[in-house]
Amino acid sequence: MADEEDDIILSELDDEELVLQMHDDLYDGLKEEITEAVNILLERGWQPYDILTKALVEGMRIVGIDFRDGILFVPEVLLAANSMKAGMAILKPLLAETGAPRLGKMVIGTVKGDIHDIGKNLVSMMMEGAGFEVLDLGINNPVENYIEALESEEPDILGMSALLTTTMPYMKVVIDTMVEKGMRDDYVVLVGGAPLNEEFGKAIGADAYCRDAAVAVETAKEFMARRHNQMATA
Amino acid sequence: MTNALTRLLETRDWLLADGATGTNLFNMGLMSGDAPELWNADEPAKIRALYDGAVNAGSDLFLTNSFGGNASRLKLHDAQNRVLELNRISAEIAREAADASGRDIVVAGSVGPTGDIMEPVGTLSHARAVEMFEEAGRGLLDGGADVLWVETISAEEEMRAAAEAFANLDAPWCGTMSFDTAGRTMMGVTSTRLAEFMATLPKPPLAFGANCGTGASDLLRTMLGMADAAGEGANLIAKGNAGIPKYVDGHIHYDGTPELMADYAVLARDCGAKIIGGCCGTMPDHLRHMRAALEDTPRGPRPTLETIVEKLGDFSSASDGTGEDANAAPRRERRRRRA
User: Fold this and answer.
1) Beta bridge partners of A208
2) Which residues from B are below 8 Å from A196, CB to CB?
3) Using CA atoms, how far apart are residues A53 and A11, in angstroms rounded to an integer?
4) What is the number of domains present in chain B?
5) Residue B299: what pLDDT?
6) Residue A139 DSSP class
7) Which of A23, A164, A171, A196 should one mutate to test binding to chain B, selecting the residue with the greatest count of B CBs within 10 A?
8) What is the largest CA-CA distance in chain A?
9) Distance (Å) from the C-alpha of residue B102 to the closest C-alpha of chain A?
10) Residue B335's pLDDT is what?
11) Nearest alpha carbon to residue A68 among A227, A199, A218
12) How far apart are CA B203 and CA B180, in angstroms?
């Protein structure tokens, strides 16, 4: 469907059109176009934080909804997230300079014995896309890795992923260790992975099971909002 | 070329496959996070007991303990150089168990996914995937596997890579995908799509179908879609989980009873499946009930979705992306399509 008249010159679009176009381009996973559009908005004097929230985060929110609803699947979301990342690479140093607000921080990793990082990477990228700071521990993490990262990074949230029935019980090992060390309640623990479900999350003592990356972002936001409220009233 | 599976498929109306590997090994003391494949060398008696569990429960076919036996997965345990050895032993023990049974039992060499995402979305090249699958398959054939059996695949590219590897080995093979995301695989493949592309492979599988996924109900809906797309004569495989996982007293327990799995097995046959087994949570007791039900229950009409829900419980999603839903998916209204 590549008609001549469909060719769009990004720099010729007005701000509103361009932001909407960016939502479409994120949806289509068009990395170069996202990079170009971020630069155009910067040249037009946009604040990095506004580009992040209005163009990128909003675009990924739409991707997240269609992923949640079974319209988009992992390959499309990965391409979208990669495009988002390309835009973020430009904005990140600028955001740090301008002291833009931070939603929260997450440490995330796939548990010991498990190589799968598709779901975890999606969560990582969508969380970053939503404005969280994320430290990704990668795959095959023994409990020591998690504890060490929690102690040194002091995140708000711990995310654990497992894609195998042979590795999912290991999440409980991590949570039990946190309890033993008296640090469980200092963190929101979110778990996810294909063989898990809500009941399993509850049974092992996690705060929530997240069905997919979009749900993970929503859940993380909810917990952060609750935390802030608690702090305000305390 | 005839082999044990072809012969059974020709002479039998249905075949009972096996159940869970991981769930059974946990019960024998496997620790979460450890590689089950290392037990082929370190705990051969337990692996034999795993196989005997399926054999004695009446399985006509069982899978070897080699699901994670590929270079990418074994690398986690620094055992990436032991693919051939561990897979060979898994098949050797299986061969002994099958031959000792006195029945015609098929040893199916289990080949699981690499765990990597393939190009262009991910980093794993087609050539490297084929190489890894070939190595995994070679070890299994060396140990005496009758067929290679690739399972729990979510990407079409990965299934194609496995198919090419098995063709290179000139090995008969079967393949199943895991439909766990709104009725599709994680990568978006529908049941009908699987049936379509499997039929067009240069060396098609002897049988194909679905394993694992979400629950018995979902798996049967998948079967219905696949049977429609595959048409008469295709050998379909149904290997569903025994319910959903629950955490009880420090271990994982699946909530599907043997009675439920017996209903599932009969319905799976009515849906058009020829090779019927379980996946996670399916223990020998489940298999015994499934076998008895398949033997004692006459074939019924193709079940409706309502019948499936009534007997096995609700689906996890409203649609599975096939049939009328295939084109009716609410696509986002676009501004302009880019060149």
Assistant:
1) A190
2) 245
3) 20
4) 1
5) 96
6) S
7) A164
8) 65
9) 32
10) 60
11) A218
12) 27
The pTM of this model reads 0.88
A73 to B187: CB separation less than 8 angstroms, yes or no: yes
Put simply, the chain A residues between 65 and 84 with a CB less than 8 A from any chain B CB are 66, 69-76, 78-79
Q: Any CB–CB contact under 8 A between A16 and chain B?
A: no
Q: Do A24 and B251 touch (CB under 8 A)?
A: no
Of B225, B250, B248, nearest in space to B236 by CA: B225
> Kind of pairing, strands B236-240 and B207-212?
parallel
**B260 part of a folded domain:** yes
Task: Give the domain range for residue B112.
Answer: 8-312
Three-state DSSP state, B186: coil
The per-residue pLDDT for B325 is 61
Residues of chain B with pLDDT under 70: 1, 250, 324-339
Query: CA of B92 to nearest chain A CA: how many angstroms apart?
Result: 23
Residue contact A78–B117, C-beta within 8 A = yes
In contact, A23 and A59? CB cutoff 8 Å: yes
The pair of structure tokens assigned to A71 is 């319209």
Judging contacts by C-beta atoms under 8 Å, the chain A residues touching residue B221 are none
- Residues A72, A164: one domain? no
Query: Residue ranges of B for the binding site?
Result: 212, 279-280
State how far residue A153 is from chain B, nearest Cα, in angstroms: 25
DSSP one-letter string for B105-163:
-EEEEEE---SSPBTTTSSB-HHHHHHHHHHHHHHHHHTT-SEEEEEEE--HHHHHHHH
**Could you say which residues of chain A have pLDDT below 50?**
1-4
**Which of A66, A99, A132 lies at the terminal end of a domain, its last residue?**
A99
Total structural domains within chain A: 2
Domain boundary among A42, A71, A99: A99
Same domain membership, residue A177 and residue A124? yes
Report d(CA A200, CA A202) in Å as an integer.
5
Between the CA atoms of A119, A125, A129 and A134, what dihedral angle is there, to the nearest 10 degrees? 110
**Alpha carbon distance B39, B35 (integer Å):** 8
pLDDT at A233: 65
End-to-end CA distance of chain B: 49
CB of B186 within 8 A of CB of A118?
Answer: yes
Whole domain around residue A195: which residue ranges?
A: 102-234
E strand segments, A76-120: 105-110
Minimum CA–CA partner of B248 in chain A:
A203
- The verdict on a CB contact (< 8 Å) between A21 and B335 is yes
pLDDT computed for residue B76 by the predictor: 86
Q: Are B67 and B109 in contact (CB under 8 A)?
A: no
**Residue A63 belongs to domain with CATH number:** 1.10.1240.10
Helix residue ranges per DSSP H, chain B: 4-11, 22-27, 38-42, 44-56, 71-74, 83-99, 126-142, 156-168, 191-199, 216-230, 258-271, 284-296, 305-312, 325-328
The predicted complex's ipTM stands at: 0.79
CB atoms within 10 A of CB A139: 19
Tokens, residue B134:
């070939």
